[in-house]
Amino acid sequence: MLARWSYISTSQLDATQAEKHMEEIVQVSIPRNRSLEVTGALLFTGNRFAQYLEGAPAAIENLKASILRDRRHREVQTIASGEAPHRHFVTWSLAYAGPSHFVSDIIERALNDALEKGDEGFEALVQMMSEFSIRGRG
Ligand SMILES: Cc1cc2nc3c(=O)[nH]c(=O)nc-3n(C[C@H](O)[C@H](O)[C@H](O)COP(=O)(O)O)c2cc1C
């Protein structure tokens, strides 16, 4: 079975240091996700995170436990979990496009939709993640 977990959370990163802290997160995440055969994407608006992860159920649970106790964010709200029909990010250990301040209003709207509309909003969010992603391949 393929499992997925997607959530939206509120950043606790100091705004002036956010890019540096994001580098640290991505540097740790790409090799760990790769070793767990987890793929997915991470969006950061400067204020909120949205992440989508897919992989074996045990691997997803493993990462989820780490991510939930991470104090660099709070108010982690799950928007999708359970079985995934197929991989959305086959070649991406963690697709991440850098802080998306420029488009943060658009993303914030998509995040609110994902929280309010359930499945439909979630599909739109995953679509947006795949369009924004430029690194984290392999
Ligand atoms: C928003 C956010 C997303 C994260 N995504 C991942 C991820 O995809 N993979 C990963 O290994 N760690 C990720 N981390 C880091 C983990 O929370 C954790 O610090 C790291 O995996 C080390 O795990 P440990 O604290 O259990 O040793 C993320 C952290 C944050 C704040």
Automatic annotation (TrEMBL):
GO terms for molecular function: blue light photoreceptor activity; FAD binding. Coiled coil: none annotated. PROSITE patterns: BLUF (PS50925). InterPro entries: Acylphosphatase-like_dom_sf (IPR036046), BLUF_domain (IPR007024). Pfam families: BLUF. Residues 2-95 form the BLUF domain. This is BLUF domain-containing protein. It comes from Sphingobium fuliginis (strain ATCC 27551).
